[in-house]
Structure of Secreted effector protein PipB2:
Amino acid sequence: MKVNQLLRLYEQGERDFLAIDLMSLDLQQVTLIAVNFAAANLRGTNLSRSFLTKSNLRGASLNWANLTYAKLSQAQLVEADLTKANLTGAFMVQANLRNARLSGADLSYANLRGANLCGANLCGANLYLVNLLEATLDKVNLNWANLQEARLSGAKCRQISAREANFSGSFVKEVDFQGANLERANFSEARLTGSDLREANLGGANLAGARLQEVNLQGADLRGANLTGTCFESVTGWTEIVQEDDIFSLDWFQPRFAT
């Protein structure tokens, strides 16, 4: 279908474009609010600055698509393929991305506040300065992802896998990391105040200069973690951790305690 034909049908009130093929078309800055693009082929399509609020993109193919600064708030992207898609600055407040594929996608500066990303694959994705406040990310794959200076306060991140992910300088206050795999993740200078890290794997993680006030570390594994200059205050489960000889045997273990 050609762009002009699509827009003409939309203006006439048509909203059902199930499984439509719009591969590699130029749809930048178009308004397609509340349309049904379920199972649509949008591979490589240019949707930059387009309005897709409340649209249904369930199971759609959006890999390599350009969605920079697109409006996707409350959109349904369940099981959508967004591999290598460019979502820089996209507005995706309360969007549903459950089980979506976002490996290698660029979500820098995107607003995903309150979004549902349960089970999504964000392996190697760029989430620099992303807004994930109060988002749900249970069982998400964030291995090798870049979350530098990201905002995740109030997010649910139970049982996520974020091995070697970069959380440096991020705001992760009151985040639920229960059972998370954070092995060798970089949390240097991160703010983790009030976060729940029970049973989390922080083996080999970099927590240098991080703030861990009022966190729960019961059952957490910090073997080999870098705690140089880490700020501890009112930490639950600290007694269990300090008994681990292999942590204190490291020369660079120099935690500081807030006063």
The two ends are 66 Å apart (CA to CA).
